[in-house]
Amino acid sequence: MHKEYLTVTNIVGPLVIVEKIVDVKYGELVEISSPGGQLRRGTVLDVSTERAVVQVFEGTTGLDIDKSSIRFLGGSQTLAVSKEIVGRIFDGSGNPKDGGPKIIAKKRRDINGRPINPQARDYPSEFIQTGISSIDGMNSLVRGQKLPIFSGSGLPHARIAAQIARQSKVLGKKEKFAVVFGAMGITFEEAYFFIEDFRDTGALERSVIFLNLANEPPIERIATPRLALTCAEFLAFDLDMHVLVVLVDYTFYAEALREISAARKEIPGRRGYPGYLYTDLASMYERAGRIKEKPGSITYIPILTMPEDDKTHPIADLTGYITEGQIMLSRELHRKGIYPPIDVLPSLSRLKDKGIGEGKTREDHADVLNQLFACYASGKEARELALILGEAALSDMDKIYMEFAEKYEDEFVCQGEHESRSISDTLDIGWDLLRMVPKGELKRIRPEFLDKYYFIEK
Amino acid sequence: MKKGKIIRTAGPLVVASDCLGAKMYDMVKIGDIGLIGEIIELKEDRAFIQVYEDTTGIGPGEPVELTGKPLSVELGPGLISSVFDGIQRPLDVIKEKEGNFITRGIEVPPLNREKKWDFKPFVKKGQKVEEGDFLGEIEETPLIKHKIMVPSGKNGTVIKIKKGKMLIEEVAAVIKSEEKEHEVRLFQVWSIRKNRLVKKREMPEIPLVTGQRVLDTLFPLAKGGTACVPGPFGSGKTVVQHQLAKWSDAQIIVFVACGERGNEVADLLLSFPELKDPSTGRPLMERTIMIANTSNMPVAAREASIYTGMTIAEYFRDMGYSVALMADSTSRWAEALREISGRMEEMPGEEGYPAYLASRIAEFYERAGKVICLGSDKREGALSVIGAVSPPGGDLSDPVVQSTLKVVKVFWALDDKLANMRHFPAINWLNSYSLYAESIKDYWDKEIAEDFSEIRQEAMKLLEKESELQEIARLVGVESLSDQDRLVLESSKSIREDFLHQNAFHPQDTYTSLRKQYLMMRTIIHFHNSGLKALKEGINLEDILKLEIREKISKMKFLEEKGDDPDVLELFIEINNVFKELLEKKG
Ligand SMILES: Nc1ncnc2c1ncn2[C@@H]1O[C@H](COP(=O)(O)OP(=O)(O)O)[C@@H](O)[C@H]1O
Ligand SMILES: [Mg+2]
Known about the structure:
The structure holds two protein chains of two kinds. By secondary structure, chain A is an alpha/beta fold. Chain A has helices at 133-136, 157-167, 188-200, 224-237, 250-263, 277-285, 314-322, 331-335, 365-389, 396-413, 423-434, 447-453, and strands at 4-5, 8-12, 15-19, 29-33, 40-48, 51-56, 69-72, 78-81, 89-91, 107-110, 121-122, 127-129, 141-142, 149-151, 169-170, 177-186, 207-213, 242-248, 289-291, 297-305, 325-328, 348-349. In chain A, α6 (277-285) packs across α7, α9 packs across α10 and α10 runs antiparallel to α11 (423-434). The radius of gyration of chain B is 27 Å and the shape is globular. Helix content of chain B is 34%, strand content 23%. In chain B, the strands form five sheets. In chain B, strands 8, 18, 19, 20, 21, 22, 23, 24, 25 and 26 form a ten-stranded mixed sheet that branches. A six-stranded antiparallel beta barrel of chain B has the order 1-2-5-4-3-6. A four-stranded antiparallel sheet of chain B has the order 12-11-9-14, with no helix packed on it. By secondary structure, chain B is an alpha+beta fold. The N and C termini of chain B lie far apart (96 Å). At the A-B interface, β5, β11, α6, α7 and α9 of A face β1, α1, α4, α6 and α15 of B. β5 (40-48) of chain A pairs antiparallel with β1 (3-10) of chain B. Adenosine-5'-diphosphate sits between chains B (231, 233-239, 424-425, 502-505) and A (348, 350, 353).
């Protein structure tokens, strides 16, 4: 039996401080019970000979100094994994939430995982067709990539993520795949939207869902994404599945982390977030990827809402520094009624270069993509100029580019929520637009592709 | 071995008591599983230890073994082509032993103990040698002859010297000085916190040619110099560093992937064995050493990884090689410092960074340099250092950026706006600078072409002028500019798009020799000057801009490099011809 301590001396925010302890380890799992209250769990954040600082996952509401009792369980938080986990819904701590039975544990995995040895990684290079032109054509996603959506409040990131989950496929292949969805602090309605969408498309049977909703304890959010990723690792690297992980919303996750940091009286970094937010996020984001001898993969789409649409906000900024690009949503496009409102210029897929081209998508893909970027950027610049000086001040080329930008947004970016375009359709739309521009201006396209594609009409 | 006792564990920081006698920066083994750590502060009998592995499961009461030795690296044959973690554990051996995921408390020697190397001695019995002298060499890869040197501080007479196949732990030579005999093995052990010694520092004045046009022509780095690449995420820091690792004409590359992405390491590991060194045709891996401590690997080891890499780089410099070290990213190293400092409850400076941040950064870059190595042959070695910096929000007022700018001589300013327009490398030509441009001038004008620096100057002037003119055009419209000025706009656009813009992923465009860079720039400037002359003679600007040769100029970068680059040379003559035609047509 584990020894019980009644020596709580301090409760602050999500933390409990216990004294007169023996043989407690850093990172150890803890059980906290209080009369009348439910059993809670936590983990040791700092331990010295006199005392331990324990972070309580379910929060400290209702705990008291007198009667709370603490047991140190040894080992850290784990998740029971087996094949039966697929199709199930859990709460943010990993307990069934769908009325189904507990998972009979064949194996238990530490939810913190272990770092993939860089030497064991295989470079992700298999193109995933999402059917969304502004992603496939401009910022292509590959299997094993971590590509976040940078959104803002009120923007349709949920619809886009659901569309990606619904439409994604690897060309010419039929393989085992699964979706792991985790909710951190989002509303019931948003979570319900995902679950219903999965149900409608039959994806629910191959999904695993972890839910920590807005009204549930914030500190639980620290565990939720780790549970989801531990599950994904099991599916990908034990069961050889291709797993798409969608986790929303990392902004609430970071706020929970900030709460703990503040309670520990740590020196705050930018905007009060702890200095180790980068490392903490990396320990999750880096769990995406491919491993050389394994057929499975983890493709990871974390979603975050940027406070005030500010991409230099620490959560977005640090995420961008870790992930392999970002899909940036734009309020301006959203206001114009363009779905999906993906702003391609600040968006980026760092892994696209090895995932596109001959034999993967199409030989002209890289050049078309670069040219579309350049033309759209010129068009947006011209648009700004026109705002200041009036359209009359634009040169003829500027006018062409401005029109290009309009059409690009209306025809290339804009598409239906249930419209899945093939990559070759996407590139053809690109060429249709490029034909608005004189051939000599298309410097980013190799001459042989210009010769081949510029003059043919649809 | 003496043992202390843990009294506190807080993430990467462990505090132990009973540590009297321990020294600063000594290595220790922590807990029953023996995690590696290093002492970073001593207070009475307590030692504050930064731990290079995850401390989950470690608690008070567990032992701390005091090794009494500083945290060190092994320097000897077997380094090249290796991939180490932050404290020099070989990742391939770890993978073989432990599988795809990294575990803790693994003990593996950095250098292979079982491999036999063919040692060719250079010295004879009875010969007098001094520190740094070559005792012999080993062909480690077809590219690199690994010199076995007399360790520093040891001078004397060779009384024994071996030859032929041997293990690194075998004694290759014995040197006698005064009464003492000193055994020299094929490898040395050196503390990562201590600079390796040199005879003398010299001024860098030969360019490190990188094949990247904006760098080599506009903002060159000298061999033995220092450069930094700050920029927000996605602006191209890593690609610049990778391009340098691939194409720069250093003989040894040490790449430190410090707290960044695992897939970027995988990218290098998978592509380097395939890529060929442009000057030797051998796989790039044969001159490369990698230190990989990615963002999900232990934080404290990030701090060490920079020094591990630097010490290895210095070791090869000591052999007389030109070495280049890339660190991607130094901000992650600074953050590791900050995290440990925070846990020790030190008084924070700016942005929570410790007050000693600036001096640590300065010390780091000062380990670069062009030097006269130890050894009686007075050979030259060079160590160039290029650090990426990742400021929050791309804000250059960040303390890491500012401390770095105070010491480095080259500033490659990455620009978010350019990156968004996919103008790569997104190096801002107005803000960047190189303090080596003056001292490298001689080399350019002697070795490449006598008007190299002149043409470079003209190009820089055009770009300056462009930004002024754009300002005016923004206020009053392009129409109100003179034809001359509009030609300036067109020509500088050509410099930007046809010269500065360089696609790292295009097989031809990815590398351009210095000679071709010169020819390309000269062609663009020649067109501009011919245009100016034609305007004076009354030719219409529109007619000049309509010339088909401009399309050819824009495709110069895709022309295959061969010998004297006749294709680019030909363009030069063609420009003369088309302008002559223009004038003739006008009559
Ligand atoms: N020279 C270049 N040529 C082509 N693409 C580039 C170049 N430099 C950067 N890029 C593009 O920009 C992306 C981000 O570059 P990267 O070096 O990873 O940025 P950072 O390290 O600053 O976050 C790359 O994935 C690539 O698509
Ligand atoms: Mg980078």
